[in-house]
Amino acid sequence: MKIKQLTNEQLIISIDRLTRFKEPEIKYLRVFKDIISNNLIEPKFKKSELDEIDYKKLKNLAEEIINYSLPENKDLTLNQKLYDYENSIFNIDSKTNVLLKNKINYKEIIKLLPKNLPQNLKFLKGLAENSQERHCFPIEKIILCEGITEEILLPKFAQICGYDFNKHGIYIISAGGKNQVVKYFYNYADCLKIPIFVLLDNDAKDNLTQIRPRLRKFDKIHLVKSGEFEDLLPNSLLIKTLNYTTQNISLAPVDDLENSSSKVEFLEEFYRHRGLHEFKKAEFAQAVKENITGIDDVSDEIAEIIEKLHTKRKKTPAI
């Protein structure tokens, strides 16, 4: 074989992609095929040819290319730890098992990692160092929600309530809409061994009906009692955030907010009438996060959601 050595950047990118939270078969095949396509000079494989190669050969080729690019290190203890971790989270078939049973020189790649790392690489480095510090990984529970607001704010609210997502291995995913939540749930319910907590807005009752029959005994689901997640934010927190974002130039009209049936509609109107930039949920959620200071900023229903997240599931599913 004639191999083009991977750069340090390529090695780091590859190990990052291999350790993210994603179905093992999908991520391993994608990374291995990219490495073979870009760094194997002879023999050269077309993409269509790589799709036909069996998993063992793909694994062996990618493994050889990666290890060719690194100093020799025969310590495979980290490989076994990663294998055990993936098997503890995912239902893995025999074909995918072949991809996971590799001899990639993780120990040497770790030496190349910079200081500022994403959570998955912090976890990998911690595994290598036998560190007990947690950075969300290893993942023990998934939260599936509709939008970015929940993804940004739930961890902060949970922290205020004494439940640290990072320390308890809680991984939150905003699916991008109620229909996408159903799609994600169906997929994860089939491939995951760990619990899934589903959070839906009140207008997703039909989606709730689609999900319920597929709930496993340790999964949970919560339907917001009225409106969407933004409607659960206390008015006092919203007003505090608006005063913060507008720098007190124009105070929020408390009466309008309390009489509004939709806090998102109120916020959109507030931004439009004051000539501010377009209201964007992600930006506003970040501002809200910065203004959460104590338990008074946590509404009763948000506290209820946090409580459901860290209590054992009852026999009968409850909304």
Entry keywords:
single chain; 319 residues; alpha/beta; four-stranded parallel beta sheet; two-stranded antiparallel ribbon; 17 helices; 8% strand; elongated; disordered C terminus
Please outline the helices and strands.
Blueprint: E1 2-3, H1 8-18, H2 24-39, E2 40-42, H3 47-50, H4 55-68, H5 77-89, H6 94-100, H7 106-110, H8 119-128, E3 141-145, H9 148-160, H10 165-168, E4 170-174, H11 178-191, E5 196-200, H12 205-211, E6 220-223, H13 235-245, H14 254-259, H15 263-273, H16 281-291, H17 300-309
Parallel strand pairs: 3-4, 3-5, 5-6
Antiparallel strand pairs: 1-2
What does this structure look like?
The protein has 319 residues and is an alpha/beta fold. Helix content is 52%, strand content 8%. The chain has 17 helices and 6 strands. A 4-stranded parallel beta sheet has the order 4-3-5-6, with helices on both faces. The chain is elongated and about 75 Å long. 29% of the residues are buried. Mean pLDDT is 92; it is low at 313-319.
Helix content: 40-55%
Structural class: alpha/beta
| Element-level helix/strand string | EHHEHHHHHHEHHEHEHEHHHHH
Query: Which percent band covers the strand fraction?
Result: 5-15%
Short note summarizing the structure:
With 319 residues, the protein is of the alpha/beta class. It has helices at 8-18, 24-39, 47-50, 55-68, 77-89, 94-100, 106-110, 119-128, 148-160, 165-168, 178-191, 205-211, 235-245, 254-259, 263-273, 281-291, 300-309; strands at 2-3, 40-42, 141-145, 170-174, 196-200, 220-223. It contains 17 helices and 6 strands.
